[in-house]
Design brief:
Layout: E1 8-10, E2 13-15, H1 26-36, H2 47-54, H3 58-70, E3 74-77, E4 82-85, H4 87-98, H5 101-117, E5 120-127, E6 130-140, E7 144-147, E8 153-155, H6 160-166, H7 171-184, H8 190-207, E9 210-215, E10 218-225, E11 233-240, H9 245-274
Antiparallel strand pairs: 1-2, 3-4, 5-6, 5-11, 6-7, 6-8, 9-10, 10-11
GO molecular function, one term: DNA binding
Pfam families: HTH_IclR, IclR_C
Protein name: IclR family transcriptional regulator
């Protein structure tokens, strides 16, 4: 798999040279930064916590939260002197999922693969330096299948999902991301982590996928889905096992790449029918 120098990926969007030069709307960017501060485990935040997470001043946060309350994006809880996300955010999330043709195509075949091979199957996309699960099915011997709530975030640098995504970036965007990650992981084994990322990128180019084990006794493999007209998505499979990564790779490479090929073929057929 080769980098495409004519364009690069930022978040969910393919950018060509010369694009994106309009003057940024700083107020909008800051408002979005406030909303990004909320995530699972941080459902209630005060102005001070939001300021710390966003790097914005408390006075700026105060102005932004007031506007976000007025637009329904945030709700204020006087008793706790804190904010929580408004129902409008959930409505937007459901609209995103409902409008995703990739999810509609991928979900049934992901479930089928999870049950048939007794593995976990997930689909994710990048958001900053994290990957966000759009869908995830976790095989469970006792209950056959359980679903992890979409929207869960995992670190890009540590995971097969994130590293497979990094492999799709053009050299300049890839180096910029590594610099940002190096700052974030400073003093926490960055040299080793960087070598693992670079090896994963080589693996994606040569084999189409990469392997990682960032949680105890869990081995995961991922491959990027680059479908015309859509941002980069990443498909992964994983198992809880005591086997080494080489053994798991030999067992799961076939199912992963077959699943990827099926999703991409069905997407091409759907796009052809809609044309």
């Amino acid at each position: 798999m080769e980098h495409a120098p004519a364009e690069y990926t930022v978040g969910m969007e393919r950018i060509k040279p010369g694009q994106g030069k309009a003057t940024p709307n700083r107020s909008l960017e800051r408002g979005i930064a406030v909303l990004r501060a909320f995530r699972a485990g941080s459902s209630m935040l005060g102005n001070g916590e939001i300021a710390e997470r966003t790097g914005l001043s408390r006075s700026t946060v105060s102005r932004l939260t007031q506007s976000l309350i007025e637009t329904g994006m945030l709700e204020y809880v006087p008793r706790l002197r804190a904010y929580r996300l408004g129902v409008s955010v959930l409505s937007m999330a459901h609209a995103m999922r409902d409008g995703s043709q990739i999810l509609k195509v991928a979900t049934p075949v992901m479930v089928e693969a999870a049950v048939r091979h007794k593995i976990n199957v997930g689909l994710a996309a990048a958001d900053g330096d994290e990957m966000v699960y759009l869908e995830s099915f976790r095989y469970n011997r006792r209950q056959s299948l359980r679903t992890v709530v979409s929207g869960q975030r995992i670190p890009m640098a540590l995971t097969s999902l994130g590293r497979a995504y990094l492999a799709t970036l053009a050299p300049d965007a890839f180096q910029a991301m590594l610099l940002a990650m190096a700052e974030k992981h400073r003093g926490r084994g960055w040299s080793r982590l960087c070598r693992e990322i670079e090896a994963a990128v080589v693996s994606v180019r040569e084999k189409g996928y990469c392997v990682a084990s960032w949680q105890p006794q869990v081995v995961a493999m991922a491959t990027p889905l680059q479908i015309s007209g859509y941002g980069v998505h990443v498909l992964n499979v994983s198992v809880s096992t005591q086997q080494d990564m080489e053994t798991v790779e030999a067992d799961l490479a076939g199912p992963l790449m077959a699943l990827s090929a099926t999703i991409q073929a069905r997407m091409r057929r759907l796009e052809s029918e809609m044309a």
